[in-house]
Amino acid sequence: MHSQLDVGAHSQSVKIAGREPVRMHPADAAARDLRDGDIVRIFNDRGACLAGLAVDDALRPGVAQLSTGAWYDPDPADPGFCRHGNPNVLTADRPSSTLSQGCTGQLTLVEVEPYHGTPPELAVTRPPATA
């Protein structure tokens, strides 16, 4: 179901400051001076997104896990930056094969850093502006 249920009660109950949670091992969080509940910027050369940090010692060190549930909420000035935590801005957009055209696994190299300043307002659940 992925993002179809993003506005559902269960999905909303695990969000951090309205954003998708990203799980990270305590040692990786400490190395970046991050704490549980912080808003973080996840980025690579393809794009970036904001997420709420969930420190979890059940996760392998060196791995950040971000689910695919957040609705895409791009910054109007930069469509490669999702304010809500959608990982599609970070992954390669290429098919698994010419036959299936299915998506490739959402595995990618990223960096995670603290987000400084006031996080931008989420617009994804508001009606679009009209002329």
Overview in brief:
This protein is mainly β and 131 residues long. Helix content is 9%, strand content 24%.
What are the low-pLDDT stretches, counting only 5+ consecutive residues below 50?
A: none
**SS element count, helices:** 2
The percentage helix is under 10%
User: What coarse outline follows from CA principal-axis ratios?
Assistant: globular
Order of helices and strands: HEHEEEEEE
Which structural class do you get from the secondary structure elements? mainly beta
Largest sheet: 7 strands, mixed
Query: What's the rounded overall pLDDT mean?
Result: 89
Which key features would you list for this structure?
single chain, 131 residues, mainly beta, 7-stranded mixed sheet, 7 strands, 24% strand, globular
Give the arrangement of secondary structure elements.
Layout: H1 9-14, E1 21-24, H2 26-31, E2 39-43, E3 48-55, E4 64-66, E5 74-75, E6 78-82, E7 111-114
Parallel strand pairs: 1-3, 3-6
Antiparallel strand pairs: 1-4, 2-3, 2-7, 5-6
Describe the structure.
By secondary structure, this protein is mainly beta. Helix content is about 10%, strand content about 25%. It has 2 helices and 7 strands, in the order H-E-H-E-E-E-E-E-E. Strands 1, 2, 3, 4, 5, 6 and 7 form a 7-stranded mixed beta sheet that branches. Strand 5 and strand 6 form a beta hairpin. The longest helix has 6 residues, at about 10-15.
